[in-house]
Design goal:
Blueprint lengths: L1 H14 L1 H4 L3 E3 L11 H9 L3 E6 L6 E4 L7 E2 L5 E2 L12 E5 L2 E3 L4 E2 L5 H7 L6 E5 L5 E2 L13 E3 L4 E3 L3
Parallel strand pairs: 1-2, 1-6, 6-9, 7-10, 9-11
Antiparallel strand pairs: 2-3, 4-5, 7-8, 11-12
Amino acid sequence: MRQENDRLIDGQLRKLAELNSSTALVGYFALADEVDVGRFMDYRRERGARIYLPSGRGAHACFREWRHNEELLRGDAGCLEPDPSAAELEDESVILVPGRAFDRSLARLGRGGGWYDRVLAGCGERDLLVGISYSCQMVAALPVEAHDKRMELLVSERQVLVAGT
């Protein structure tokens, strides 16, 4: 079931023009309860997009470029990351953001460490924030703090939600 939902989400992502016109895509390698976006990262790479991944912790948290043939390293949090010397994201980009839960206002609940909140706070206004979720992770409402960033789109296997609609 999960693999089928991942496939359906990949199909939803490929249909969205906003995601396919960017030359830079921030993805991630899924943890056990997250949507696998690996196929979409490959799809965008094949079409010329540069791929970035979450990297580092604390003051060194950022998105770093991952070239397809470069080996990934296991970071402090156990996630696969590009080499710390890889280029940091500077371009306008589409940023795929996993979460444990999302609500209809496109608020996100992460893992509690605030990593994405800190890094997304430094992103530009032209970056497109796209929450990636299974429909079973949708809840009625989430608590939101001042530093929390809402997504502009939310993609699940059943729907695509757009902020403000």
